[in-house]
């Protein structure tokens, strides 16, 4: 039986993703290596999906998503809260109209979303600021990482 090398498998998937219309990025727009959300892509997509959203409110929502606590004691609760944001939207108070509104992170019309990925995605380790984790592939929808692919034999 022929063993497929990790790099060959990874390169095969990169080619497949590109054939399916995914965009390969060298990295994402973020303020530090601990952030995993692409601020630039998510900001643009929030405006496309929610045209009534003002830029400053979009930036506030992005910051709130990035600042979700990463405490292991509340990991299930935090993951569920993020899941609700993805599936049900994010509520905010619009001071201009003085009403509560909801923005969506992912458009239900799939063709209106941004599909991208990063190969060899480097993320800082929050427990040890000098260490990094490098994932083989990370898939993003609208700048939000939704899938991590890692191969090991």
Sheet of most strands:
4 strands, mixed
Report the uncertain regions: none
How do the strands of the widest beta sheet line up side by side? 1-4-5-6
Percent of residues in helices = 25-40%
Structural class: alpha+beta
Give a quick set of tags describing it.
single chain, alpha+beta, 6 strands, 153 residues
Description of the molecule:
It is built from four helices and six strands, in the order αβαααβββββ. With 153 residues, it is an alpha+beta fold. A four-stranded mixed sheet has the order 1-4-5-6, covered by helices on one side. The chain is globular and about 65 Å long. The model has no long low-confidence stretch (mean pLDDT 88).
Topology of helices and strands:
Elements: H1 6-19, E1 23-25, H2 39-49, H3 55-66, H4 75-88, E2 90-94, E3 99-103, E4 115-124, E5 132-141, E6 144-149
Parallel strand pairs: 1-4
Antiparallel strand pairs: 2-3, 4-5, 5-6
Helix pairs in contact: 2-3
Task: Describe this structure in a few short sentences.
The chain is an alpha+beta fold and 153 residues long.
């Amino acid at each position: 039986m022929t063993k497929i090398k990790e790099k060959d498998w990874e390169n095969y998937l990169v080619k497949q993703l590109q054939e399916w219309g995914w965009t390969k990025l060298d990295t994402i727009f973020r303020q530090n290596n601990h952030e995993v959300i692409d601020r630039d892509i998510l900001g643009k997509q929030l405006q496309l999906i929610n045209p009534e959203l003002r830029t400053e409110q979009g930036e506030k929502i992005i910051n709130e998503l990035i600042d979700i606590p990463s405490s292991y004691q509340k990991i299930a609760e935090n993951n569920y809260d993020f899941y609700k944001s993805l599936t049900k939207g994010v509520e905010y108070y619009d001071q201009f109209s003085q009403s509560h509104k909801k923005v969506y992170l992912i458009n239900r019309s799939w063709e209106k979303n941004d599909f991208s990925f990063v190969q060899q995605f480097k993320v800082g380790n929050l427990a040890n600021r000098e260490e990094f984790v490098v994932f083989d592939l990370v898939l993003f929808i609208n700048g939000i990482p939704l899938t991590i692919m890692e191969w090991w034999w």
